[in-house]
């Protein structure tokens, strides 16, 4: 059985991976839409793409601050909190991984069209 400090390290690594995938999602979305590679279907994201600074702040800076807050408080959380954060982060990781796969497909289509 893992001790709490090992679980915290595991969660923190997943948080970093999630932030990297989130940043990759933002960058890919901006680049692909700029070159008419695809149409953004999310209406909220459509409006954010009109203002690049706002888009970057809402898609990258705000999640970074939120994750940093959890990252710092995680060691003081109990077993239940750590398990909840671990499951949540893993779910978000899977989601962002799938989104990044779609972006890779779109980049491929954009390059070969």
Number of helices: 4
What is the total domain count? 1
Helix content: over 70%
Overall radius of gyration: 17 Å
- The total beta strand count reads 0
Report the biggest beta sheet as strand number plus sense, adding barrel if it closes: none
* Oligomeric composition of the shown chains: single chain
Report the mean per-residue pLDDT as an integer.
89
Q: Could you tell me the strand content as a percent range?
A: under 5%
Q: Distance between termini? A: 52 Å
Q: Unreliable segments (pLDDT under 50, ≥5 consecutive)? A: none
Sum up the overall morphology in one term: elongated
Order of helices and strands: HHHH
Mind sketching the topology for me?
Elements: H1 4-34, H2 43-48, H3 52-73, H4 79-111
Name a few traits of the molecule.
113 residues; mainly alpha; 4 helices
How would you summarize this macromolecular structure in one to three sentences?
This protein is mainly α and 113 residues long. The protein has one domain (4-111). The chain contains four helices and no strands.
Q: Could you describe the 3D structure shown?
A:
It is a single chain. The termini are far apart. The protein contains four helices and no strands. The chain is mainly α and 113 residues long. It has one domain. Helix 1 packs antiparallel against helix 3 and helix 1 runs parallel beside helix 4. The model has no long low-confidence stretch (mean pLDDT 89).
